[in-house]
Every structure is written in C-alpha cells, then in structure tokens.
Amino acid sequence: MSEDTAVDSRPTKIMYVAEATAHGGRDGYVTSQDGQIELKVAMPPALGGDGNGTNPEQLFAAGYSACFHSALVMVGRREGYDLSGSTVAAKVGIGPNKRRGYGLAVALSVSLPGVERDVAAKFVDAAHEVCPYSNATRDNIEVTILLG
C-alpha cells in the first residue's frame, strides 16, 4: 500500500495513557505508574536466560490477546451476538531480522464456540481492523490469525 492510499490509524484523540518503567531491561523489573504492575523480568531460557520472571514477549502477548478479544466482543455485540465463552490466545515469537536487529511475529488463535465459521471469520476480520494492537502492528510485523 502506498503512503497515499494507506489508512491512517493514528488516534485523533488520546483518551487514556498507560505508563510503565523498566528497571534493568530484560534482567530487572517493570512497574506501572499506578502500581498495578510490579513484575520481575528475566530472559527466557531459549534466549540464554534463567526464565525466572516474565519477559516483554509474554507481556506483549497478554496485551494483544486482551485487546483483540475486547475488539472481537465489541464487534459481536454490534451484530447482536453474545460472545461469552470466546477466547483469544496470542503467541509472540522473537528472532533476528535481516537488519542485524530483532523482530517479532504474532499468531492469534481465536475460539468462538457456537458461532458459524463464516460469521466468526467476519467478526475476526472486523476486530483486526478495530484493535489498536492490530493497527499498530499492521505492515510492521507478521500477524497470523487462526480461527479454531
């Protein structure tokens, strides 16, 4: 998509600002301004760490899955569906990229029990357009959505 035809997904009004601070990077801890988060952070064993704490990829997976699920429920509600019992699971992978840095890839697994597959697919597509995480990652990282 060229810049002229790209959809601008930036907010027109900031309604909420979350604040968090990292102390010690991937081997330290993270806190939120409001005190709701105070977590030890550690490198996972797959990346050479001891795994004795959470890591940024887990936090991103938690945030993306919660946000996408909220978008999905909102889309369903607009169409008259109660999506109670639905779930969204996120897998966030990290690995080296071609620019001598690192990149992420995301796989979202969506479960919509009792919803016909074609309807569920429409809800997933609409949620992917609404979700702020999807909008932030679009054309930046690979996001795969699996409908179960």
Strands of the largest sheet, in order across it?
Answer: 1-2-3
Q: What's the main sheet like?
A: 3 strands, antiparallel
Structural class: alpha+beta
Coarse shape? globular
Helix and strand pattern:
EEEHEEHHE
What level of helicity do the residues show? 25-40%
Mean residue pLDDT: 94
Query: In total, how many beta strands?
Result: 6
Spans of at least 5 consecutive residues with low confidence = none
How far apart lie the N and C ends?
29 Å
Give the C-alpha Rg: 17 Å
Task: Tell me the layout of helices and strands.
Layout: E1 20-23, E2 28-32, E3 38-41, H1 56-78, E4 87-96, E5 102-111, H2 117-130, H3 132-137, E6 142-147
Parallel strand pairs: 5-6
Antiparallel strand pairs: 1-2, 2-3, 4-5
Walkthrough of the structure:
By secondary structure, the chain is an alpha+beta fold. It has helices at 56-78, 117-130, 132-137; strands at residues 20-23, 28-32, 38-41, 87-96, 102-111, 142-147. β4 (87-96) and β5 form a beta hairpin. The chain is 29% helix and 26% strand. It is globular, with a radius of gyration of 17 Å. The longest helix has 23 residues, at 56-78.
